[in-house]
Give the backbone structure.
Amino acid sequence: MIWRLAAGMARLLPPETAHRAAVATLRHHIGPTPDLPSLPVSVAGLDFANPLGLAAGFDKDASCPDGALQLGFSHVELGTITPRPQPGNPRPRVFRLPADGAVINRYGFNSRGMEMVAAQLARRQANLARPESARPESAQPGIIGINVGANKTSSAPTEDYRIAVARLAAYGDYITLNISSPNTPGLRDLQTVDNLRLLIAAGRAGLADADCERPLFIKLAPDLASADIAAIAATAADEGVAGLIATNTTIARPDGLRSHHADETGGLSGAPLFAMATRVLAEMAGQLPAGGPVLVGAGGVASGWQAYAKILVGASLVQLYTALALEGPELPARVIRELAALLASDGVADIADARGQIPDADKAMQHALRLAQSA
């Protein structure tokens, strides 16, 4: 009850103020500590306690990874982090669409820069390296992803990715190259095949500079034509990319949005994105060869059945962010418990057995929802 009240109070604040307050709260490890069912997933050489992660965009500067892990997430993706600090776009730049269960943001990669993040994560690593008896109680084991991007004013954006990866790779378990934010001019052009190959090469060069091996993921937009999806899948598979995250926010505005801020410029996330993102995920899964990049399903997840739908079409992992902002800190545990119940109801032993079992997105969403409604 206390966490629902806290979430309700946060909704009385302006959205960016509420976001900063949530980060500060988790930095001080204020939040539920749930006891959760075991739903282990092993992908890209990493062992996840469950398939649910916190998407990039919430903890932009590595301020509260342990507090977020405490809520039940198996992994937290930090960022997007740019080489140099930058303020992002002018305020206001975040807008709630309460009647639609959605948010529009045009943050524009506001980042305190890679040096500050590296210092934060170095302290975290030092705490986790201590013997368990001497380790701070706040130190939480879990997978950390590092999501990097280019500075807005960079004259060589691809080089920015190399620089950020080289500086930060040692502090993360995997690296994500974000080429799909709609709020940095020209960024989505990096999704074209030639630019994508150059970007992957830059990411690999950064890993070589850091002298460490990390799985390389790429975060994609939902606003892709079928030909683009096929080309990206083929390129990612050919280049040996470890994973693809589908999807980021959308620049589209689906029919029927009711909220006052529906016409604001920026990326739309939350409930209206769910079906679109799941269809892109399914199409991507259909284009990838067996043994190719793993898929991470993001976009509009706010319940166990929505997470399950993304797994059914081919995701190994699922991420959320907007629903956490709208519903509060009890949400991750609820999603994981609901997902475990759905697997049991379907007679499926684990995530790996469920993955890709219903390749058609609409059928997967219908099946997962019916199963949840009959529970």
